[in-house]
Design goal:
two-stranded antiparallel sheet, 41% strand, alpha+beta, 9 strands, Nuclear Transport Factor 2, Chain: A
């Protein structure tokens, strides 16, 4: 993910953006903008911008989605995001890439294998 940062001081462009950071990720760009409402309260505006390439050859366009996050919700939002990202990372450790969420057997490292009394090796496989 490529990052860039900018500050606007109201002299040009969108005067309501006090601070902004953009994150480029493939076909998407995420804009994190600090804005001020009419009561001078700061909030976070998250915008996802995705380039759409029509298959019929017509000109490309951008699809945008916005989320507004207010200061009283920051802690709960951050806690939820950390929980969800942790869950996804843990699931990705269990599921090899390219399996699209299907669980596949994993052979545990050698130190976790056992030998039968007759000398045959048993493999412990998790699903």
């Amino acid at each position: 993910m490529e990052e860039s940062m900018k500050k606007t001081q109201g002299e040009s462009g969108d005067k309501e953006i006090l601070y902004s950071k953009s994150l480029k990720a493939g076909k998407r760009i995420y804009y994190l903008d600090v804005k001020k409402n009419q009561r001078d309260d700061l909030f976070l505006a998250i915008t996802e911008s995705k380039k759409i390439q029509p298959k019929d050859g017509s000109p490309s366009s951008f699809e945008k989605h916005k989320i507004f996050l207010y200061k009283e919700d920051f802690d709960k939002f951050l806690e939820g995001m950390q929980d969800i990202i942790g869950y996804i990372r843990k699931q990705n450790e269990l599921t090899p890439e390219g399996t699209e969420g299907r669980k596949t057997p994993r052979i545990l490292p050698k130190e976790k294998t056992d030998k039968d009394d007759d000398g045959k090796i048993k493999l412990k496989i998790e699903f």
